[in-house]
Amino acid sequence: MLLPLVLAAVLLLPGGRTMAEEAATHQQQQAATLLKIARETLAAEAPEVKRPAEDLPRPSVVFLSLTRTAQAAVIGIGVADTLEDATRLAAQDLRDEATFGDLATGRLRIDFVHQAKLPQPAGEPRPLKVLPSPVGLMFVRGDWLFVPEDTNLAVAQSPAVSFASWIETPDGLLQLYEGSPLVSDTSPAHLLAACTAGGDYLLRGLLLDGKFDYLYDAATNESVDDYNLVRHAGACGALAEIQLAVNQEATRQGRAVPQSQPYLEGSRRGLDYLLRNYASGPYQDNPNQDFTTIISNGQVSELGATALTLLAMTKCHNVSADSADLDLMRQLGKFILHQQQPDGRFLPYYYFLDHDGEQPESQYYPGEAILALTRLARIDPSGPWLAAAQKGADYLIDIRDAGIPMDELYHDHWLLISLNQLTDLTDNPRYIAHAEKLGTSICNLQVRQSERLDWIGTYYQPPRSNPTACRGEALVAMIELARREKLDDRRYLETMARTAALQLRFQITANSGIYLPRPDLATGGFRGTYSDWNIQIDTVQHNVSSLLGYRALQLGKKK
């Protein structure tokens, strides 16, 4: 009898171990034994096993995958009466496809199942075949699919068979669930490693002129011809955040700050591209206006592009005070002031052509503008920046969000991050109260239990990477605010722990990306969903920022 996973996890056996822990230990030992058999077979140290003469359903199925750095993994399949023989057959199949170099350097992943009654194929049996896909393997037999990982394929005509999945790593065997580690490691050391891997992904896609590879489809190894300057600026800011974390970690461990500053240099190069190609003064050099803005398409300036450019420059300043131009930061800040209306509202667009008519509300730009002004106020406290930031926050709280029930509030992560900064500078109780509403609303939406273990921590069903990361950024700010104001942070922290664990499942690693055509190019990136392998630079940005913030909380630091 199979017990539900949640129930098995809490039933204790003698010695204090749960049934789930005991089952995992047994399965790991089984995987280790099977992988030993596989290695012996690959090395031709074991006698070969003959494949069954008849292509009939048998109770044991084994997939064996051999990783390759710059190519998709090589795959072998074995079907037999025992797992041991199925493993030998899979290894023999693999040996026929792999090169000596593959065998010398690759790591093995094993997916195996043994059950008395596997689904029967419809119609006449057809030859066995394996179809690799970016999200796993499909074992096709007749009209039946055995899917070790959820591919969401409409062509599947049978229930998926539940496979046990393990992969060799330098630290030993690692259990996989839907292609990613069963348990996410959210320790400070691992979070920093994950974020630097994200930074390395961004640097690999940073061209010599400072432009990013904006959208990379890891499933097809193709770059999509699209671009967004707001997200370009956000990626520059994320690189600066990574460099600051790396430098602080060196100091924390008593080491000298490294002379090489690759993430800061990447951030500077990206900002230089932005400012060199898109910075502009007022329309028709209006003598009554004095500011610098970022022009998105030659005719319109988006508030968000200028705000995130300024924010990225403040982050570079945090790493190295001589790495940002304060005069230019002030000029960018002046544009944000220019866009602010008397009631505190920010106009999202500035037109370089005559334009009449109302401008729509923007969900993101006001919070981005407020945060940029608040960060600038820390660097240039004598300027008008803090007052304008407060005025903008007051508008969002008192007008935009007024009267909206807490659980219907838009989860404005930029505003919550800004409110954390503003309460630190002003100690305004209204900002604290609204931050608590936003933080509680985020907590209320999170999925805390699910039969799908990889859905725990999500805010959308199915899970999506970017919305999860943005809420993570908001929760980091809320926890920091709560600790500073001596508020109870336990629920926010529990929600953030689940959020961070889910975020890591979206990151492509050496273990989760083995079936991609170029694992080496995709590693470190964050995909959009479990079935969408597009890596967009802002998805990397938000995940990195959130995870670095969670790490800082664990270390007792301010983000």
What are the SSEs and their pairings?
Blueprint: H1 5-10, H2 19-42, E1 60-66, E2 74-80, H3 83-97, H4 100-105, E3 108-114, E4 129-133, E5 136-141, E6 144-146, E7 164-169, E8 172-177, E9 180-181, H5 188-204, E10 215-217, E11 222-224, H6 229-252, H7 262-278, E12 279-280, E13 293-294, E14 300-302, H8 303-319, H9 326-339, E15 349-351, H10 365-379, H11 385-400, H12 413-426, H13 429-445, H14 465-484, H15 490-506, H16 519-522, E16 534-536, H17 537-554
Antiparallel strand pairs: 1-2, 1-3, 3-7, 4-5, 5-6, 7-8, 8-9, 10-11, 10-16, 12-13, 14-15
Helix pairs in contact: 2-3, 5-6, 5-17, 6-7, 6-8, 6-17, 7-8, 8-9, 8-10, 9-10, 10-11, 10-12, 11-12, 12-13, 12-14, 13-14, 14-15, 14-17, 15-17
